[in-house]
Amino acid sequence: MPFTLRDVREHELDSVLALNNAAGASILPMDAARLRFFWEHAEYFRVAEQDGLITGFLIALSQDAPHDSPNFRWFRERDGRFLYIDRIVIARQRRGGGRGRAFYADVQSFAEVRWPLLCCEVFLQSGNDPALLFHGSFGFREVGQQTMPGTDIRASMLQKELASYPWVAQTYGSRLPDVPWLRARALPGRAQALATGT
């Protein structure tokens, strides 16, 4: 059965957490509080589902998210509006089946009508050349490097200009047509802030 990409559901967060923390050294571990932050603030938080199981996910945040990641802050200090891919994880037994490429095509389609830039980083560690090549094949280019504070992890900071954005922004501004494929994720954190006035 083929896999599908869709928005994550709240009751699936434990499965997402387990998948993240089983991913290996190329993905930073996280706890339930960090995952809850993503649930509340990520503009893009989608999972790959196959045969009723979550086999991958991708999380991305806008420049306005109250994110404390040093790599996110690196982009915020240099760029205006962007969507930042915080992490993509594919279950080990499902790697090589096209999920990564499907996620990147999907997140680009989501982003290019809203932001001029798509940003991410790849850790510069031995054996990570396939990840750099993967991003290069999607048109990302390195715009700098940084060593994450308090670690010896060096990251290649990658960025892609989204060619469709200027035309969409000029033609539609912030009022995109109300059609299913353009709908944004309802952010629980934003709804909570509006309700409490914070």
Automatic annotation (TrEMBL):
Gene3D superfamilies: 3.40.630.30. Residues 3-163 form the N-acetyltransferase domain. One of its GO terms (molecular function) is acyltransferase activity, transferring groups other than amino-acyl groups. It comes from the Bacteria. This is N-acetyltransferase domain-containing protein.
